[in-house]
Specification:
Layout (H helix, E strand, L loop, with lengths): L18 E8 L5 H11 L5 H13 L15 H6 L6 E6 L4 E6 L7 H8 L4 E7 L6 H12 L4 E7 L8 H17 L5 E5 L23 H7 L12 E3 L2 E4 L9 E6 L4 E2 L4 E5 L3 E10 L2 E2 L3 E2 L3 E6 L10 E4 L6 E11 L10 E6 L2 E14 L6 E2 L10 E13 L11 E6 L5 E8 L7
Parallel strand pairs: 1-3, 1-4, 4-5, 5-6
Antiparallel strand pairs: 2-3, 7-16, 8-9, 9-15, 10-14, 11-12, 11-16, 12-13, 12-15, 17-21, 17-23, 18-19, 18-22, 19-20, 19-21, 22-23
């Protein structure tokens, strides 16, 4: 069995530290799966049995050596077609940092999967084929990353070996992406020329591109700063379940279980139970491993309160100083994922945290042109994979934050009320809040 350890011994002087979640995106055949396979292979993040299976799978496809893309293309349909369909999550570590990577599909029809994979990312690696340059799907992924408030982008210009490691090609692509990302308000963009197939500038610096004086991809991922602060923001604990003890000494046991989606919680803290608005205090914080003196997001806990309150699934425990406001009107950005266009007046279901309510789209404020970033204010609907700003009216109030204040409580999905298909990824906006 191969231990998760990097190839370069110089890294061994660094202690293991924080966790970086990143996603990959880009157009079809830009090399996303190969890049992730290269990272796993060159950091020795592959077990021996996986290597053997990879060799066999490569031979079955008529190849020699190792087809690293097969490490993440796990579905049979993916391997047969040579494309990524589902989001593949992989885990690896170096002495500097631990990583969770989401390899997302590049094909237009699987845009919804890119939204899913990037929704919790601290960083997105967008691949561009050096031969074809920036495509419409590349722009779409940059727009989605910007709307999802992914704080950092890395542009990996791949297949540099196929353009003779030409610096001019790299600089031209970087200039185009810088201009496009800048119009979206994205300023933290790092560009790296790579060859995922041969490993140039992936884990080790490439001697084939002496004109590039930046860090290889892995070093950048190991050292990039993280904006997320453990337990930061206002307290948000949507209730998923009420736990009651039926028998025994704890027959009066009642706890409210859920995942903390913002802030921190301690026994004795004053909290407000929504929707009732009753203020109470935390009696204890329970977990499977025992009680806690403090819990921070994103930990799942069961909270006992000092008072009996009317609180169940769909309710929220929040801090008394900054509780979310109840609203039945949502101004939101949406990436439309359904085959049937979003239609004004049609009924949907909105799933937000642990609650689902009926919703009606009352207005398409504007549709965004992916290529020009122009806003079409006359658009009557949104078709599949289009992005726009809409207004929703809800049958019951929900307790939502602005997406840029809290990515968990500021997001939701729209579900078709007749087919149960997920048709829209919703990002809650504040009144008058600007968008790209």
């Amino acid at each position: 069995m191969v231990v998760l350890a990097p190839l370069r011994s110089a890294h061994r002087s660094y202690p293991a530290s924080d966790l970086l979640r990143f996603s990959t995106a880009g157009s079809v055949d830009d090399g996303k799966s190969t890049l992730i396979g290269r990272l796993l292979h060159d950091t020795k993040g592959i077990f021996e049995d996986q290597l053997v299976a990879l060799e066999h799978a490569t031979r079955r496809r008529g190849g020699d050596g190792l087809d690293l893309a097969l490490l993440t293309d796990g579905l049979r349909a993916e391997r047969e077609q040579g494309i990524t369909i589902d989001v593949a999550y992989r885990y690896f570590a170096t002495p500097r940092r631990k990583f969770i990577v989401a390899d997302t599909p590049g094909h237009l029809q699987y845009t919804r999967n890119m939204v899913t994979g990037s929704s919790t990312a601290d960083l997105t690696v967008i691949l561009v084929d050096a031969r074809t340059g920036v495509l419409e799907q590349t722009r779409r992924h940059i727009v989605i990353a910007a709307l999802l408030a992914v704080p950092r982008l890395v542009v990996a210009v791949n297949k540099m070996d196929l353009v003779g490691f030409d610096e001019t090609v790299f600089r031209s692509i970087v200039e185009e992406i810088d201009g496009f990302a800048g119009r979206l308000g994205v300023t933290d963009v790092t560009a790296i020329p790579v060859s995922a197939l041969h490993g140039d500038n992936v884990v080790d610096r490439s001697s084939a591109m002496p004109w590039f004086d930046g860090s290889p991809l892995l070093e950048h991922l190991e050292t990039v700063g993280l904006d997320s602060v453990e337990g930061g923001g206002a307290l948000r604990l949507p209730i998923q379940w009420v736990i009651r003890a039926a028998t025994g000494d704890d027959s009066d046991y009642r706890a409210y279980a859920g995942r903390i989606m913002g802030g921190r919680l301690r026994p004795g803290d004053a909290v407000v139970a929504l929707p009732s608005g009753i203020t109470t205090r935390v009696a204890s914080i329970d977990t499977y491993d025992g009680p806690l003196d403090e819990a921070v997001a994103p930990l799942s806990v069961a909270v006992r309160l000092t008072d009996d309150v009317d609180l169940g699934r769909g309710g929220v425990l929040a801090g008394v100083d900054d509780p979310p406001a109840a609203t039945r009107e949502l101004d939101a950005l949406v990436c439309w994922l359904g085959d049937v266009p979003l239609t004004i007046g049609r009924r949907y279901r909105l799933a937000h945290t642990s609650r689902t309510v009926l919703a009606v789209a009352t207005e398409v404020v504007a549709r965004l042109d992916i290529n020009t970033l122009e806003r079409d204010i006359a658009a009557p609907w949104l078709a599949a994979n289009e992005i726009g700003r809409i207004r929703l009216t809800l049958a019951e109030p929900i307790f939502a934050d602005r997406y840029r204040s809290n990515r968990a409580t500021g997001s939701a999905i729209l579900i078709d009320d007749t087919t149960n298909a997920t048709v829209g990824a919703v990002l809650v906006q504040g009144a008058g809040e600007d968008w790209p």
